[in-house]
Amino acid sequence: MIPAMPAASAASRTAPVTALRVVSMGAVAVLILVAGVWGSWGTAQDVMLTKGKERGTVTVTACGDDTCTGPFAPVSTGAAKRASVVLDKSVGVRKGQTYDVIVKPGTEDVVRSGAAGVLYSWVPLGGALLLASVVVAGGLRLTRVAWLLGGSGIALLTAAFAALQ
């Protein structure tokens, strides 16, 4: 007859597995969030840190599959008028409309400015928040934190979509 194992020793064997799960899933969640910030910051820095950058408007004259083009009319001092600049095509860009934009330094590319531009630049972070919420809920079993992350991601994506319309 095999003696019954004490409850304390069975619990002590699962503790390292639980700790490993928490550490690994926590690292995955942090990695996802860092990737979201990294993906957003490339555009967000141009939209949020506008000092010394060329600001103006673009009237969209033509759109392709991924981009739209149009003439750039400067608004800030030191900005140069351009015959054509490139704006990423998104749900909120339509031919014939005029948008406030900022020129990316050293390029002919422009990004939307104002609230719509700020929210749109952080869309990758919104997606990362949604994905991290699944990892936090399933891997870390922190449902309240997961709901907070997921709700924040949904709020950011919804606000960006609404601002672009």
Descriptors:
about 160 residues; alpha+beta; 5-stranded mixed beta barrel; 4 helices; about 20% strand
- Low-confidence segments, given as residue ranges, are none
Helical stretch tally: 4
First-to-last CA distance? 74 Å
Oligomerization category of the chains in this entry:
single chain
Principal-axes geometry comes out as: elongated
Beta-strand proportion: 15-25%
SSE-based structural type: alpha+beta
CA-based gyration radius: 23 Å
Number of DSSP strand runs: 6
Written as H for each helix and E for each strand, in order along the chain, the element string is HEEEEEEHHH
Overall mean pLDDT stands at 91
What does this protein look like?
By secondary structure, the protein is an alpha+beta fold. The chain contains four helices and six strands, in the order αββββββααα. It has helices at about 5-50, 115-120, 125-140, 145-165; strands spanning about 55-60, 60-65, 65-75, 80-90, 100-105, 110. Strands 1-3-4-6-5 form a five-stranded mixed β-barrel. The radius of gyration is 23 Å and the shape is elongated. The model has no long low-confidence stretch (mean pLDDT about 90).
